[in-house]
Amino acid sequence: MRTEVIRVATGSRETVHDITGDCDTFLSRAGAGDGLLNIFVPHATAGIALIELGSGSEVDLLDAMRALLPKDDRWTHSHGSLGHGRSHVMPAIVPPHATIPVVEGKMALGTWQSVAVVDLNVDNVVRKVRLSFMDSG
Question: Would you tell me how many other CB atoms lie within 10 Å of the CB of residue 64?
């Protein structure tokens, strides 16, 4: 297994941040053939989504998260910025991991799928993402 941790600057606002290129670069550097790519964000307030990017889906996803998880004072977990508790609930909806098949060194994503870090937590501006390639051989 080959593994690497990348740092992703998500900034101080809610975001859906594309890391597809980072995953491709990692697989190339790892000399990947056939196997599995696991993507894991070791944070209690971020997730990994496989989603179409660049067509407005990022805005739609953030709007859906705001509707499901309002940014207000209802949350028991209440330290940090207003609505911080919702960021701790979000990984139950957008999980902190994804596993993608890799064929001949390339992610076997669907035509419109990309890999993104979803981050509602405005208190943390940089996230770590662990990329691990497991060879099928």
Answer: 13
